[in-house]
Specification:
about 800 residues; 22-stranded antiparallel barrel; globular; about 5% helix
């Protein structure tokens, strides 16, 4: 049955038709950036009558920068190609006749409004915010506010994205978000249930793509949407490179190197980054638990350090074969060592006065991780820009180890012997992805997309523990002995139809998916099997009110499958009074999401406004289970449902060429409902967050000053609330010697306010916890860029852009 369905989708994608219409012709082409040669999506192409300048037809370019204008009546025309970030290009003298009914414009290069050309230097500044058909693109490759930082620092500056104390990511207040690396699932994105994003330097990132209502082309995972982290790949011709280094207070050091070799036959690129980040990491907790007439309280104060050392590298190659064929391969890897140490002082007392215990727990938690991703791709672009066939194979491997050394000694009452424990676990992950995507452009500006995909995820974890006995020797114990394996298989097929009808653009599709999950706790002979067969429809429609202003309406059904970390029953005993474990009985959550948006785009002002609502069933939430002996376990549970209604505003204002500002706001009212009589998970409330960035370019744009601010209002959870938090950063950057050299200064969290403080409020339990780590740093950076861009190739591109043209 599954094979039949997959075959149907594949055959449907190859279906096309053609017909000849007397008196009409077609015009096609491809729009590229004049410097990077990257395709320009969402660029408006309009055809005007040469006689009276009346508008005849129009279309937006697709994700490959391509466009096809069909059934254009024979006559003489000129074409206007416009994008808010680029100078408008006019291509005159376009004639269609019976003798020449097809006009191929080839590659058309647009020049950025911020591009400055001289004899040897090309400087290009991308707009920080770009609006696509179904996504927002944040160009962060040259963002000075993240110099010396990591991926988490970059994401903290992205509107509507938040990072919690454990590195977990949320989008629009929802933590169920899918993170991709270069559009694919990867162990480097934390797909194994552990966030390793902290180990990827910000200097290796080109852009961040936010897709809140993804089409059927995307995997349906992530109920709040998709965050795609695109790593840098230099596309300039010739030999180019860059070297950068940073140093900061609190023992922070980073360095990066990038090299690129490109000609007309191939593009070979590679980069490497190193990060050494040290600093303090403290947390404090007050717990009160009522047992009958007695209130048992536990106060914990932990002071510690956090050292993180990582190496990240990527190498790849694109080979341009004749007849519009491209072969590509890449290898990306990340290796890291992290060590957290702490000294925790614990005081336990009853009825807010009588001390019953005082003890100290010294801990050391070293861990290692190695991740490597292999990608192999083939792409065939059809003649006349009529579509493409794209096949990809992707393999992501990772392994890592976690250790814990815990020495606990009692000060009161006297006579209790100290304990010395050692916990060890080793984890391995294997992701395999095979995909085939087919795009075909039909007549009447109709586009079809379809494809097949297979994902296999294998994960294994072994853990053991030992304690020192009376003789002072380590002997095995049963505190943490687990042998856990997890297998997930996903088979999917999708089909999409999209196009343009006058001022309307539309896209609708469906994804069929069959998935199997097998969490298996071998050490306890516990095996689970979850099977799902689902349809995930999605649709988007846009209406152009006038040039630069559009209305949009989108809908999608999505799923959030519990990942291996959520399902893993392994219990962490780093703090025996605050345990952490997964729940192998978790079910997936499903969401219905709808967005209503307004976008306005001009050279000085960009507005993206959206109202949205999400209904989620079987909500996966982090919860704490409290026991009568005063201990607790942080785990995961399914809550019946939740409803989130809110709005998002992203505004970019550029009143002058030297000054640009970005302000974002996201707020939503969320309600959690659950019928579990033993839990108190019914809560509701309004939450919101704001972010602000202001950038000023001085001294002929060789000196850049930037201020970044963020604020998150109190937010509710199923068991309590998260208290407000915020921070302000300052950055400065000076380019020297025609931009080949540069120096930077960055001060993060100027007022030292960044951290997390949350409260658990239940009928018999209350807890206040605070996490604070080293966030205020002074960072100095230096960089050097070398190489050149082939200006002659730029000239050839312009000459091929439709028989000549001129820029406005």
């Amino acid at each position: 049955m599954r094979f039949t369905l997959f075959t149907f989708f594949l055959l449907a994608s190859f279906f096309t038709f053609s017909q000849t219409v007397n008196g009409t012709g077609s015009i096609d082409g491809r729009v590229l950036d004049s410097v990077s040669k990257t395709p320009l999506e969402y660029t408006m192409v309009r055809v005007y009558n040469s006689t009276d300048s009346t508008l005849v037809s129009g279309i937006y370019t697709d994700e490959n920068g391509s466009f096809v204008l069909e059934e254009v009546k024979y006559g003489k025309y000129y074409i206007s190609i416009s994008n808010p970030d680029y100078k408008t290009k006019i291509i005159p003298n376009i004639s269609l006749s019976a003798n020449k009914s097809l006009r191929k414009l080839g590659n058309i290069a647009l020049v950025s409004i911020n591009t400055q050309l001289d004899e040897v230097v090309i400087q290009q500044e991308k707009n920080p915010l770009q609006l696509g058909l179904d996504k927002k693109i944040y160009n962060v490759g040259d963002d000075i506010a993240t110099s010396g930082g990591s991926v988490t620092d970059v994401l903290n500056n992205i509107p509507s994205v938040e990072i919690d104390q454990d590195g977990a990511i949320s989008l629009r207040g929802d933590g169920n978000v899918t993170v991709l690396i270069d559009g694919k699932p990867s162990n480097m994105s934390g797909g194994n249930g552990k966030s390793v994003l902290e180990g990827i330097p910000a200097s290796s990132i080109e852009r961040i793509e936010i897709v809140t209502n993804p089409s059927a082309k995307y995997d349906p995972d992530g109920t709040s949407g998709i965050i795609n982290i695109v790593l840098k790949k230099n596309v300039k011709r010739g030999i180019n490179g860059n070297i950068a280094a940073t140093a900061g207070t609190g023992n922070l050091y980073t360095g990066s190197l990038g090299l690129n070799l490109r000609n007309t036959r191939f593009n070979l690129y590679g980069n490497y980054a190193y990060s050494y980040r040290d600093g303090y990491r403290n947390n404090f907790s007050d717990l009160n638990q009522i047992n009958g007439d007695t209130t048992v309280s536990l106060n914990q104060m932990r002071y510690g350090g956090d050292l993180n050392v990582t190496h990240t590298a990527k190498i790849g190659m694109d080979v341009y074969v004749k007849d519009r064929n491209t072969l590509s391969w890449s290898i990306a890897g990340n290796a890291g060592n992290r060590k957290r140490v702490g000294n925790q002082i614990n005081t336990r007392y009853t009825n807010f006065g009588d001390t019953t215990g005082v003890w100290t727990r010294n801990s050391s938690d070293p861990n290692t991780s190695q991740n490597i991703d292999f990608a192999l791709g083939y792409k065939w672009d059809f003649k006349d820009d009529k579509g493409s066939l794209d096949a990809n194979a992707y393999q992501s491997l990772s392994q890592g180890s976690d250790e814990g050394f815990y020495l606990q000694s009692y000060d009161f009452p006297a006579g209790i012997p100290s304990t010395d424990q050692h916990l060890y676990s080793r984890e391995a992950n294997d992701f395999t992805t095979l995909s085939l995507d087919f795009i075909r452009l039909l007549k009447h500006q109709i586009r079809t997309e379809s494809g097949l995909k297979m994902i296999q995820r294998n994960m294994s974890l072994r853990s053991s523990s030992e304690s020192i006995d009376a003789s002072g020797n380590y002997v095995p114990d049963t505190i943490s002995n687990y042998n856990y394996k997890y297998l997930e298989s996903i088979y999917s097929a999708y089909g999409i139809v999209g196009g343009q009808l006058k001022k309307f653009r539309y896209q609708a599709g469906v994804r069929l998916e069959y998935s199997i999950q097998n969490p298996n706790l071998i050490s306890k002979s516990q095996s689970f099997k979850n099977e799902y067969l689902n349809l995930f429809p999605s649709a988007t429609i846009r209406y152009e009110v006038k040039k630069g202003t559009e209305l949009s309406l989108g809908y999608s059904r999505r799923i959030n499958r519990p990942n291996s970390g959520n399902l893993n029953p392994f219990t962490s005993y780093a703090d025996p009074y605050n345990l952490r474990s997964g729940n192998p009985a978790l079910r997936p959550e499903y969401i219905h999401s709808i967005d209503l948006g307004v976008d306005y785009n001009s050279k000085k002002f960009i507005l993206a406004f959206a109202l949205y609502q999400r209904y989620t069933s079987h909500v996966i939430q982090r919860v704490k289970v409290f026991y009568e002996n005063g201990t607790s376990n942080g785990t995961f549970a399914n809550i019946d449902n939740s409803v989130s209604s809110g709005g998002e505003v992203v505004v970019q204002i550029k009143p002058f060429p030297i000054w640009r500002n970005m302000l974002s706001f996201n707020g939503n009212y969320i309600t959690y409902k659950d019928d579990n009589p033993s839990a108190n998970w019914n809560r509701e409330g309004f939450v919101f967050g704001m972010k602000f960035s202001s950038t000023l370019d001085l001294m002929k744009k060789t000196l850049t000053l930037q201020i970044n601010g963020r604020y998150s209002a109190p937010s509710i959870t199923a068991q309590g609330k998260m208290n407000p938090r915020g921070s302000i950063d300052f950055s400065a950057d000076k380019s020297l010697w025609d931009g080949k050299w540069g120096i930077g200064l960055r001060v993060t969290d100027i007022f030292n306010t960044q951290g997390f403080n949350f409260v658990v409020d239940q009928p018999t339990v209350s807890q206040s916890s605070q996490f604070k780590w080293e966030t205020r740093r002074i960072i100095v950076s230096i960089r050097y860029r070398f190489g050149k861009t082939d200006l002659k190739e730029e000239k050839r591109s312009n000459e091929n852009g439709g028989g000549g043209g001129f820029d406005f």
